[in-house]
Design a protein that fits this description.
Blueprint: E1 4-7, E2 10-16, H1 18-35, E3 42-47, H2 51-58, E4 66-76, E5 83-88, E6 98-106, H3 110-120, E7 126-134, E8 147-151, E9 157-158, E10 174-177
Parallel strand pairs: 3-4, 3-6, 6-7, 7-8
Antiparallel strand pairs: 1-2, 2-10, 4-5, 9-10
The structure holds guanosine-5'-monophosphate.
Guanosine-5'-monophosphate (5GP) binds at residues 49, 104-112, 156-158, 162-164.
């Protein structure tokens, strides 16, 4: 497995290996399995970044699941509402459902905090969030993450679904920008 990669002219070095990622994904799958026993939660996976994490995570949750993929896009609201997040692709009625939102990375928390509000407005029975990565130093929109894979420093990362200008999502490990 490559220790270093160059993407769009920038150098990245390995930060989380394939073994470390899979070990942690397995732990998260076990926790979710224990916490949702007897239920059929809905997995709401946020595209594009969470596609690989979701594919691995759901194979480690030993429960029946509904799995949906959504896309979030930011747009300017009125001057009083500021930026808003639009949710595209949500087809299932979430009323009385146990929703698990799956994200790749929480940086400022802006995207997720807005998305959670939208999901809660649909009267689900419960909402929990799982994020593979979290940058605690960057959080400026507080949002409680129920299951965190790894807390990481405020550096740019790619691989395992995460891109740099749409390049690098297919890399099996997570790489960090070399300053
Ligand atoms: P937030 O709204 O929390 O500031 O940003 C979340 C989104 O920003 C993520 O879903 C991801 O698309 C992008 N992002 C934030 N940090 C990184 C990073 O280090 N690497 C990559 N590839 N994307 C990031």
């Amino acid at each position: 497995m490559k220790e270093e990669v160059t993407v769009n002219g920038k150098d990245f070095s390995v930060y989380l290996t394939k073994e470390e990622i899979i070990g942690r994904v397995w732990d998260l799958g076990q926790q979710i399995t224990n916490d949702y026993r007897g239920k059929t939660p809905i997995i709401l996976s946020v595209l594009n970044g969470a596609f690989i994490f979701t594919a691995d995570l759901v194979r480690h949750i030993e429960l029946p699941l509904n799995i949906e993929f959504v896309r979030l896009s930011s747009y300017e609201g009125t001057s009083s509402t500021g930026k808003l997040t639009e949710v595209l692709g949500l087809k299932t009625d979430l009323e009385n459902q146990d929703v698990i939102i799956v994200e790749d990375i929480v940086d400022t928390g802006f995207t997720l905090s807005n998305f959670v509000k939208t999901v809660k407005s649909k009267n689900p029975n419960s909402v929990k969030i799982v994020s593979l990565l979290r940058k605690p130093e960057a959080i400026s929109f507080p949002v409680e993450i129920d299951y965190v894979g790894f807390d990481i420093p405020n550096d740019f990362v790619l691989g395992y679904g995460l891109d740099y200008d749409e390049v690098g999502r297919e890399l099996p490990q997570i790489y960090k920008l070399v300053e």
